[in-house]
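DATA SHEET
Item: assembly model
Revision: 1
Owner: S.N.
Input lines:
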Amino acid sequence: MNEITQKLLKLVSNWDGMFQGAYNIREDGGCAGRQSSANVHISSKTDVPGLDIRILPGTAGETVSIPACVTHGDIDDLVYNDFYVGENADITIVAGCGVHTENGEPARHNGIHRFFLERGAKVKYIEKHVGTGNGDGIRSIDPVTEIHLAENAVMEMDTSQIGGVDRSTRTTNATLAAGARLVIRERLLTDGEETADTQFQVELNGQDSAADIVSRSVAKGASKQSYTSTIIGNAPCSGHSECDAIIDGSAIVDAAPKLCAHNADAALIHEAAIGKIAGEQILKLRTLGLTEEEAEAKIIEGFLS
Amino acid sequence: MLKLEHISWGVPDGREILRDLSLEVPDGKLVVITGPNGSGKTTLARVIAGIEQPSAGRIFLDGRDITNLDITQRAKAGVSFAFQQPVRFKGITVRQLVETAAGNQLTEKQLCDILGKVGICARDYLDREVNATLSGGEMKRIEIATVLARHTRLTVFDEPEAGIDLWSFKNLIGVFQKLHTDLKGTMIIISHQERILRIADEIIMLANGSIQDRGPADVMLGKVLSAGGVSAACCRGEELFCE
């Protein structure tokens, strides 16, 4: 793999010169390294670009790393990765993406990830997105995540865009069977002319299924963000959606949380708050010895942590 | 020692909130500033902390003129300020806030020592966010802990009793009594509460932006009570000055 890929891997994944456990490194649309383990089998798809990742039932304590890097402009990478997680497996999946361009040409990665969790399976899914490079080329990342949780399956999704991505559209759709639980934590930072569009749709189809979606974002400069979440309760279930945004400069944030209760015992809640950093927060940190700039940075760092 | 010389501060419409106020607070003393609403207590506290700049007068800390220092510089010069309404932060944990106050990373034991002084078990709180899930009493204790973590020469508490329940208030008195015993610098508390006045070395009574009277607590307490026009019904909660 090239040097840029190595730098991007450090930003978006748990790579420290090597990966522990099963992995596949995608570099500019090709494979720069792959390893399966006894319990995690990674194979190439035959019909479209991408991978089938099969995790055996009962697998516990393993981490699977599936990072993707675009290291120069004039690349439009599209990949379909499917994760099949067996019954009662308990696993961590890291799937970061870094996009780099210097030559003025656009660079884009579009990862379509589908998760099929069988009964009782548990997944912690971590995805970090970052753009790097100084050129004028547009850096785009458009992840699509599709989640299907069988009975009592649990998925925790920790997704973040930590800067430098000019355009992103993040789409996440999920269906939950009885007793399944989905927790999503999104963190998003945009600056300059960047735009980020987030769309969540969760269908709670089974009794006692539950979803908790919390998005925290910071929009600086002249950036634009939009957030849409829809939780549909088709059974006795519980759903919570929260969107908090800090806005600065001439940035724009639109937030539209939507709840659809299609069952009288669906307990659904949404919250949304958009505003500047509170002056009292800056004052408090300044009384502790921080400058105004340090206080702002501390507040944003904490908010997005 | 804190020394204020001829401090004035006014609102844009010209109304003066502090009028030619001069004051000296020696090292090792706990001074409680009291007075009716609108007398200028909180403004005085904010002027000392650098949150407000006086329109006239000078402020000295240990002989150094700190009048023109901004909030950050004032904090670095050794002034701590505990807000009347503690500020909540989404995403910042108790550990991070106390470490920010201390200016460096702290061991679990150091954090336990600081939080223990305000009656909080660190293990239960360190990784909690300083957000709306904490009660008013918990927030007040954490606010005081951030001030204690700084070990500064001068600490100003603005109405620490505000917004907390009676149970938390009783514990708060214990915290201040302990602080007073261990006091190395100077402590100023803005307060309406008789029980806080009772632990002071000196009580200063403000009225209309000026010092109306000052003296040792045992001498001043009676004067303050009578000057406040306290009624029995009004004072059941130990509030000295009626709204």
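QC remark: The first helix of chain B runs from residue 41 to 49.
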